[in-house]
Design goal:
Blueprint (H helix, E strand, L loop, with lengths): L1 E5 L2 E5 L14 E12 L9 E12 L2 E14 L21 E15 L8 E15 L2 E2 L2 E2 L3 E18 L4 E9 L2 E7 L8 E7 L1 E12 L1
Antiparallel strand pairs: 1-2, 3-4, 3-14, 4-5, 5-6, 6-7, 7-10, 8-9, 10-11, 10-12, 11-14, 12-13
């Protein structure tokens, strides 16, 4: 702000240009979370592409609840899926690359810090439970590997930061670990029924594309 003289005395003018917000809204928030995740364990394949949406509800001050859902997708063959072998080598036209797709859901608690001197910077910490599933490639109605489906259940631990450009709109980044267990459903060529192969999984989500809108 600067003062100027005039016939009526001194008056003030507002600063021009972009100004970071002096406070941000609370109450409700919707976020876009993307784009990738990787599995850190040998038998812990998880689709690498993800596009998720999360809803947050403020309980009191820094305490929020969240719930979210994401679409999972990837493309590869049995080697990409970290299988020991395709398992269908005796069949003609199998073991080819294809698309795997699925989804996951999560729910939990978020702590959003308030920095008095810089209210437009909001560090966040999330904890919760998560589960999901994804199916494996089938080309022309034929399986390309013995593995048909995977589903997982685990915990959620994440940290990130939001930079509010407006009082209701922020850009951010998150890093999240989801230690848990995955069940791979497999069916051998001569088997009438599928078998379940359990494994430990440790997905790491790297989410540099976070867009949060508060209302």
């Amino acid at each position: 702000m600067r003062g100027s003289g005039g016939p009526g005395g001194t008056y003030k003018t507002s600063p021009s240009g972009f100004q970071l917000p002096d406070f941000v809204y609370g109450g409700n928030a919707v976020s876009l979370l993307a784009p990738v995740q990787v599995g850190l364990t040998p038998n812990g394949f998880i689709p690498r592409g993800r596009i998720g949406f999360q809803y947050d509800r403020q309980l009191h001050r820094a305490h929020w609840l969240h719930i979210g859902a994401a679409a999972l997708f990837d493309r590869g063959d049995w080697q990409t899926f970290r299988m020991d072998s395709c398992g269908l080598e005796s069949q003609v036209g199998t073991c080819q690359a294809g698309t795997t797709a699925g989804m996951d859901l999560w729910v939990g608690y978020t702590h959003k810090l308030f920095i008095e001197k810089h209210p437009w910077i909001v560090p966040t910490f999330r904890a919760g439970v998560a589960g999901g599933f994804w199916s494996y490639p089938r080309l022309n109605g034929t399986r390309e590997q013995t593995r048909e489906l995977s589903w997982m259940l685990g915990l959620q631990a994440a940290a990130g930061v939001r930079f509010f450009l407006l009082r209701e709109l922020a850009l951010g980044i998150d890093v999240e670990l989801r230690p848990g267990f995955v069940i791979h459903r497999e069916r051998l060529p001569a088997a009438a029924e599928s078998s379940n192969d359990p494994a430990f999984i440790l997905p790491l989500q790297i989410l540099p594309l976070v867009l949060e809108y508060r209302f």
